[in-house]
Amino acid sequence: MVSCSVADRCSSLTMHHSLAHDKICKLNSPFTIHSSLHIFATNNNIFMRYFIIGFMGSGKTYWGKQWSEASELPFFDLDEEIEKKEGKSISAIFAEKGEEAFRKMEADMLAVFYKKDNFILSCGGGTPCFHNNMKQMNKHGATIYLQSTVAELVQRLHAEKETRPLIAGMNDDVLAEFISNKLNERSSVYSQAMYHLPTRYMHTDNFQKIIRRHG
Ligand SMILES: Nc1ncnc2c1ncn2[C@@H]1O[C@H](COP(=O)(O)OP(=O)(O)OP(=O)(O)O)[C@@H](O)[C@H]1O
Ligand SMILES: O=C(O)C1=C[C@@H](O)[C@@H](O)[C@H](O)C1
Ligand SMILES: [Mg+2]
């Protein structure tokens, strides 16, 4: 399904081959993802499914929207889809029904996307870590891990804690420790993504240029 071309060279971005996870190829841009390398086909239908994963605050929604505008692939945000279906915020769902119930809703909503054809989906921070979701996403499309450092995440999440139930009310020291521990715990799952994009090397301008070149 996927192969690495000779042009796939880059200092900051790596791709994990979906069929041979031990093979790591350097890519010249995140948008090699958008090339024919990641077109999936069944029964003569061609479709592109991109699942963006990463820790809370890594920029999945931010980059997913920009990528969608530039590529014209429709953008969806899994948290927002759950909120629409349930008619309440993620915080309210956690408060009223608990995390376990939320994880089930999340897996069920994700499964809806396995049947859609062309999209970019920004997942929740914990999505890959529950209900075998990581394996399923790798099976049904291309998975893209936005890899951020603890320092980047603390900086971004500092101002947005209250909309994220897992970190609401934490002071900055506790937040940094929580992020560090949780990231550590989740890293082995995130690393199963086909593409790893370190967010500190991503900028709007080069992102869009890359799309124009590869889209
Ligand atoms: N490269 C960037 N430049 C400027 N702001 C950014 C960048 N990446 C993310 N942000 C900002 O950081 C905050 C967190 O990003 P975002 O909401 O996209 O994260 P997320 O991965 O979708 O988080 P969650 O899993 O909680 O939904 C947002 O305010 C977003 O606008
Ligand atoms: O990291 C997590 O577990 C979460 C991230 C958010 O996107 C939401 O899905 C929810 O707040 C849980
Ligand atoms: Mg988001």
TrEMBL record:
<keyword id="KW-0479">Metal-binding</keyword>
<dbReference type="InterPro" id="IPR027417">
    <property type="entry name" value="P-loop_NTPase"/>
</dbReference>
<keyword id="KW-0028">Amino-acid biosynthesis</keyword>
<dbReference type="InterPro" id="IPR000623">
    <property type="entry name" value="Shikimate_kinase/TSH1"/>
</dbReference>
<keyword id="KW-0808">Transferase</keyword>
<comment type="function">
    <text>Catalyzes the specific phosphorylation of the 3-hydroxyl group of shikimic acid using ATP as a cosubstrate.</text>
</comment>
<keyword id="KW-0547">Nucleotide-binding</keyword>
<keyword id="KW-0418">Kinase</keyword>
<protein>
    <recommendedName>
        <fullName>Shikimate kinase</fullName>
        <ecNumber>2.7.1.71</ecNumber>
    </recommendedName>
</protein>
<keyword id="KW-0963">Cytoplasm</keyword>
<feature type="binding site">
    <location>
        <position position="79"/>
    </location>
    <ligand>
        <name>substrate</name>
    </ligand>
</feature>
<comment type="similarity">
    <text>Belongs to the shikimate kinase family.</text>
</comment>
<dbReference type="GO" id="GO:0009423">
    <property type="term" value="P:chorismate biosynthetic process"/>
</dbReference>
<dbReference type="GO" id="GO:0005829">
    <property type="term" value="C:cytosol"/>
</dbReference>
<dbReference type="GO" id="GO:0009073">
    <property type="term" value="P:aromatic amino acid family biosynthetic process"/>
</dbReference>
<dbReference type="GO" id="GO:0008652">
    <property type="term" value="P:amino acid biosynthetic process"/>
</dbReference>
<dbReference type="GO" id="GO:0004765">
    <property type="term" value="F:shikimate kinase activity"/>
</dbReference>
<feature type="binding site">
    <location>
        <position position="61"/>
    </location>
    <ligand>
        <name>Mg(2+)</name>
    </ligand>
</feature>
<feature type="binding site">
    <location>
        <position position="186"/>
    </location>
    <ligand>
        <name>substrate</name>
    </ligand>
</feature>
<keyword id="KW-0460">Magnesium</keyword>
<dbReference type="GO" id="GO:0000287">
    <property type="term" value="F:magnesium ion binding"/>
</dbReference>
<dbReference type="Pfam" id="PF01202">
    <property type="entry name" value="SKI"/>
</dbReference>
<feature type="binding site">
    <location>
        <position position="103"/>
    </location>
    <ligand>
        <name>substrate</name>
    </ligand>
</feature>
<comment type="pathway">
    <text>Metabolic intermediate biosynthesis; chorismate biosynthesis; chorismate from D-erythrose 4-phosphate and phosphoenolpyruvate: step 5/7.</text>
</comment>
<dbReference type="GO" id="GO:0005524">
    <property type="term" value="F:ATP binding"/>
</dbReference>
<dbReference type="InterPro" id="IPR031322">
    <property type="entry name" value="Shikimate/glucono_kinase"/>
</dbReference>
<comment type="subunit">
    <text>Monomer.</text>
</comment>
<feature type="binding site">
    <location>
        <begin position="57"/>
        <end position="62"/>
    </location>
    <ligand>
        <name>ATP</name>
    </ligand>
</feature>
<keyword id="KW-0067">ATP-binding</keyword>
<keyword id="KW-0057">Aromatic amino acid biosynthesis</keyword>
<feature type="binding site">
    <location>
        <position position="125"/>
    </location>
    <ligand>
        <name>substrate</name>
    </ligand>
</feature>
<feature type="binding site">
    <location>
        <position position="164"/>
    </location>
    <ligand>
        <name>ATP</name>
    </ligand>
</feature>
